[in-house]
Amino acid sequence: MRLLNGLLVPTSGSVRVFGFDPATEPYRVRERVGMLFQNPDNGLVAPFVEDDVAFGLENLGVEREAMRERVAGAVRAVGLAGYERRETATLSGGEKQRVALAGILAVEPDLLVLDEPTSMLDPAGRREVLSRLAALRGERTVVHVTHHLEELSDADRVLVLVGGEIVADLSPAGLFADAELLGRANLSPPVLVRLAAALGLPTDVRTARELAREVARECGR
């Protein structure tokens, strides 16, 4: 993840992001890549919400009026309208992560990189952040690193790494159905998938409603 925006420099091989080398042209890359880290506190740099969201735009030299509009839009996009003058230290973990996400969205990156963004959040915070990320689907490219496979149910593509090596490149349904691969990668399929498998039903279900329909269909036979 950190190779994508020049936080780490490769010791072998090369990295290209939108045609640029992050090691030698980090600022060209960082204009187009936004990173959301797993610890919400690591993503906050200012005492008030709107100041934190504006931080990246200030570094890019965005004009004041345009900055206000982009900050307001980003705060609305993560569901925190009305929080502009709240102190970031008083927010919950989920709210802090959404503020960090707003700061990234304000810069309008082409690529959003998520480094296990829900791993340090409670269930309510996870739902908050995931619902906002789901709203971004189709708007930009998202690279999402996670051990929670239910967060990948709607992904277009899944890369599985074991010992630092890519061992599979497949769809979520393909991953969930491959018990050998899941065991090798020390991963567990989502609860709904495990329940469907235990009932002898198709394992490509994504929601409880889809599983309920499969159960009703099976019972009606």
TrEMBL record:
The organism's superkingdom is given as: Bacteria
Name a Pfam family for this protein: ABC_tran
ABC transporter domain: residues covered: 1-188
The molecular function terms of the Gene Ontology recorded here are: ATP binding; ATP hydrolysis activity; ATPase-coupled transmembrane transporter activity
Supply one GO CC term from the record.
Answer: ATP-binding cassette (ABC) transporter complex
Q: Which UniProt keywords apply?
A: ATP-binding, Nucleotide-binding, Transport
> Matching Gene3D superfamilies, A to Z?
P-loop containing nucleotide triphosphate hydrolases
Supply the SUPFAM superfamilies for this chain: P-loop containing nucleoside triphosphate hydrolases
InterPro entries this protein is in? Answer: ABC_transporter-like_ATP-bd, ABC_transporter-like_CS, ABC_transpr_CbiO/EcfA_su, ECF_ABC_transporter_ATP-bd, P-loop_NTPase
Hey, which family's this protein in?
Belongs to the ABC transporter superfamily.
What is this protein's record name?
A: ABC-type cobalt transport system ATPase component
Source organism of the structure: Rubrobacter radiotolerans (Arthrobacter radiotolerans)
